[in-house]
Amino acid sequence: MAGNRTFTMIKPDAVADGHIGAILAKINEAGFRIVALKMTQLSKKKAEGFYAVHQERRFFEELTSFMSSGPIVAAVLEKDNAVADFRTLIGATDPAKAAPGTIRALFARNMGENAVHGSDSDENAAIEVAYHFAVTELFA
Ligand code: ATP
Ligand code: MG
Fold it and tell me: What percent of the chain has pLDDT over 90?
C-alpha cells in the first residue's frame, strides 16, 4: 500500500539557515517517502491564499510576508497515517514547546519562523498538494 499523503514546506528560515538536507534526512529516516519535491518562492498572493484560514488573525500579515520573503521547499510525503505522524515529527507550533528531537525543536527560530509546515487533516493535505503541484509532478 502506498499509504496516505501529507504536504510540507521547509519555510524560508530553515532554507536560509542551511537546513534543507538535514530536514529531508529526518523525513526519510521517519519512514516517509518523498513523492514530489520543489524549491520555489511563494508570491505574497500565493502565501495569502495558502493561509487564507488565518486571514483574520493578527499575525496574518507577518506570516504571509515571511512565507514569501525567500525560497521554500515544498514536498508531498507518503506514509501510513501521514498527517498525524508528520505533525508528531515536526513538533509544536512554538519551537520552545516542541518535544526534543522534533524538527521544530532542532531547526526553528521562533513561533513565526518555525522551520516547517505540516498539513492538519487528510482533507487539507489534498487541497494543499493540489495548490502547489500539478498531477504530472507527483511520483507515487
Ligand atoms: P503550519 O500550518 O505552518 O504547519 P501549525 O499548524 O503548527 O503550523 P497554525 O495554527 O496553522 O500552526 O499557524 C500557521 C503558522 O502561523 C504557524 O506555523 C506560525 O508560523 C504562524 N503563527 C501561528 N500562531 C502565531 C502567533 N501567535 N504569532 C506568530 N505567528 C504565528
Ligand atoms: Mg496549520
Answer: 97
Testing ligand 1's pocket by substitution, the residue of 42, 89, 93, 103 carrying the most ligand atoms inside 8 A of its CB is 93
What grid cell was written down for 4?
496516505
Residue bearing cell 524538527:
103
* Residue 129: all three cell numbers together: 498538494
* Ligand 1, atom 21, residue with closest C-alpha: 112
**Ligand 2 center–CA 110 separation, angstroms:** 15
* Residue 2: per-residue pLDDT: 58
User: Architecture of 2-43+71-137 per CATH?
Assistant: 2-Layer Sandwich (3.30)
Say what the pTM is: 0.97
Average pLDDT of the segment spanning 80-107: 98
Question: Taking the domains of the chain in order of start, what are their residue ranges?
Answer: 2-43+71-137
